[in-house]
Automatic annotation (TrEMBL):
UniProt-listed PROSITE patterns: LRR, PROKAR_LIPOPROTEIN, PROTEIN_KINASE_DOM
InterPro entries listed in its UniProt record: DNA_repair-toleration (IPR053211), Kinase-like_dom_sf (IPR011009), Leu-rich_rpt (IPR001611), Leu-rich_rpt_typical-subtyp (IPR003591), LRR_dom_sf (IPR032675), LRR_N_plant-typ (IPR013210), Prot_kinase_dom (IPR000719)
GO (cellular component) term, any one: membrane
Organism listed in the record: Rhododendron simsii
Positions of the Protein kinase domain: 653-953
Name of this chain's protein: Protein kinase domain-containing protein
GO molecular function, one term: protein kinase activity
Biological-process GO terms, alphabetical: defense response; response to other organism
Highest taxon of source: Eukaryota
Primary localization class, coarse: membrane
Membrane topology field: Single-pass membrane protein
Cellular location(s): Membrane
Amino acid sequence: MAKNGAGEREVLLVFMFLLLCSCCTGDEYDLLLSIKNSMNDPLNLSLSNWNLSLSYCEWKGIACDNSSHVAKIELSGNNLSGKIPESFFHFPYIETIDLSDNQLSGGIPSNISICLSLRHLNLSNNNFTGPLPRGSIPQLQALDLSNNMLSGQIPDEIGFFWGLEFLDLGGNDLVGKIPLSISNMTGLQILTLSSNQLIGEIPQELGLLKSLTWIYLGYNNLSGGIPTEIGELTSLNHLDLVSNNLTGEIPSSFGNLTSLHYLFLYLNKLTGPVPPSIFGLQNLISLDLSDNFLSGEIPELIIQLQNLEVLHLFSNNFTGKIPNSVASLPRLQVLQLWSNNFSGEIPKNLGRDNNLTVLDLSTNTLVGKIPGTLCNSGCLYKLILFSNSLTGEIPNSLSRCSSLRRIRLQNNRLSGELPHGFTKLSLVYFLDLSNNHLSGTMGGTRGWEMPELQMLNFARNRFSGALPASFGSGVIENLDLSANGLSGEIPASFGDFSELMELKLSENKLSGEIPDELSLCEKLVSLNLSHNQLSGRIPTSLTQMPVLGQLDLSVNQFSGEIPKSLGEVESLIQVNISHNHFHGNLPSTGAFLAINSSAVSGNRLCGGDSTAGLPPCKGDKLQVWLLIVTCLLVALAALVVLSLILVFVRKRNDNFETRGNNEVDGVWELEFFDSKASKELRIIDVVASMRDENVISRGIARGGVLYKGKSSVSEFEFVMKEVSGIDSLPTGFWTELGKLKHPNIEKVIGVMRSKKCGFWVSEFVEGQSVSEVFRGMSWDRRRKVALGIAKALCYLHCKSTGSSVGFELSPEKIIVDGKDEPRLRLRSPGRICTDAKTFVSSPYVAPETREAKDTTEKSDIYVFGLILIELLTGKTPADTEFGLQESIVEWARYCYSDCHLDTWVDPTVKGTALSNHQNEIVETMSLALHCTADDPMARPCASDVVKTLESVIRPTYCVFGLNCSSTI
């Protein structure tokens, strides 16, 4: 066999030499000019001086040898497009070709193997398609074809590249098994096949490649056990097999990998204990075995890992105590053991001799006290210990931990008062101590100085005394102090919380009236003051709050009548006023329509819908008849006026049509949801806008035509969207549409409909789509856009009743106004099913939606994750298309797992973003990958997305070098 193999090599070399002699003798000037003609250089950076006025050795990107022959072509990162001509491989003396990080497309030329002088070939990060090149270049040392769209199987001929030291085929759409012939490359040092569609087992023949220092096979569909032969690769520095379907136990032979620095096996199906030999790898820097089914205890032998910086064992079935020796690992920065069955106490000296930056031990069965040494390093910024059985007081030392930014200690049994100074941690933006036994006061002389605080949850504790007048924060968004023993009045200063979206003060002993100043919280969506001793009337000022959606005043001592204007608050969708002293008429509009009887009981109210279960008000019958007669007369008059207007319009426009059909064969009805628009817009304006020259876009079936119009009496501009088949619309569709009020959703101002057709009319927003503007945006602006989209999602799925209406959720459909606020366009029901062709071709669709043809909250979350990836990386599913539609997600997971931020962060924001927002970007990508999980049930809900995104988009200090996934 060896003789035959040697003979084949000799024949192949002779054949290639003949090809080289016949094909590589062309004039190098002509070859270079043919390359220039085949490529586009939009930035005019690379090919601008490629002309005969200069020697080609002076051209940009060209390097020559001592004989003035082209030895190197280096044109990376210049946004070049077009295809690679075959002439690229006709240079007889070229050693290096680097075209990485461009927009080149097409197939890789089949004549690659004729350039026997080639040593380094880098075509990574382009849009190349087709199969991998076949043949051989025996002297080729580095081949990088990663992050393209190459498909098909890895050919057996790959083994003919026997001189390779570096091989990276990751981030493509390769299928099939890893060929055994790869073992012929005995000098191979770097092997990356990650983020493809590879199947089968990992070949045990990899154990023959003794020079390997790096193996990365993650994010494929590999199965079976991990070969014990990998343990024979004693030069191995980095082993990454993440996100496959690997089963069985971790081989004990891994203990032989004495040079190993990084061992990543997470997101597999591995079982059994961690082999004791693993804890003898004294050079190990990062160990990540998370998201498996590993079990058993972690031994004290872990003390041997003196160089360990990151330990991720979360989401497994580990039991026993956290070894005390963990506290003696001097370089430990990140310790994440959440979602296991660890018991006992947290090691008492943890943090004393470590460099802890992130500690997450949540969702275990830990007991005892929180060690006071956790922040000895001065760099601890994330402390997450929730859902254990911890007792005792919060250590005083934590109140001096100025690096802390995120604290989650909820669902424990902590007691005592807050340590002095704990409310002065100036960098904390997320603080959750809910569901403990904490006591003492929150206000008084304690003082709050937490300028970054966004989320504060002290619910279900034993705090008493008055509410603090301030929390030292002008950006607080979520405040939950419910289920305590707080007393006194609601401070008028709460009106200064301009960013507040959710305020929960229920189940306390608060008294007095609701301060008018609370209405100054213009972003407040949810207000819960139930189960207190509040009194007085409902302030009419509350009716001026623009986005108030949920109001709970139940079980208090409020009195007086319900303000009629409260029923006119368009954003309000849920009200509970039960068990107070209200009297008089219940409003019959807005949120009081079809209100449940339990939400109004325990008062002296009358009227309302039949669902309210209230007695009729005196004189109601006569008033009802008068109202009916009046309405009939008004309606009749309106019909006459509308008919006259339509006759006038028909005479003025004899050939008026909509979508080619004579739809105007009935009476048009225009209903406004916005009082201001009703004064600036007339039905004649809306009808007149339905002309071909006003068409913005055309679709298919429902939601087909989009028109732009302008008022004839003012400068007011609007758009109108066609909704056909209105007979099949869900019950209450138009009512739900009118209730959708959110600053990040297009503002629907009214509907116009006839028997056969309908339009909703929206306020025109001046701006551009996300896809048009985001590449010129800084990271700060991009994260503002992301947060706005998330808030709109949360509103639709968590706050509103508009279940019949969905979003046009793609960067092309989301408009960004001049203040960087995104506005989501609405999509009418049935759009996905009826517009199947467009739907199937769209890359912004969750996998399960392609089969079910129906969107859900979880499918919208998936698409939002894609948009997050796009904002982070600058790449889109359309222009990167790493194989299947989901491949951009796989590519993102591949990039994220290696934590080479400079390789995947969008170059246009890379400079300032990496220096000021590194952890922020890493955690945002973590959220994006949560959102794009294959299993819809594994994706977070919309409200969690908003909370997580709000909490992570903050500058980060004490930056550590590796990715730190954590519970959200």
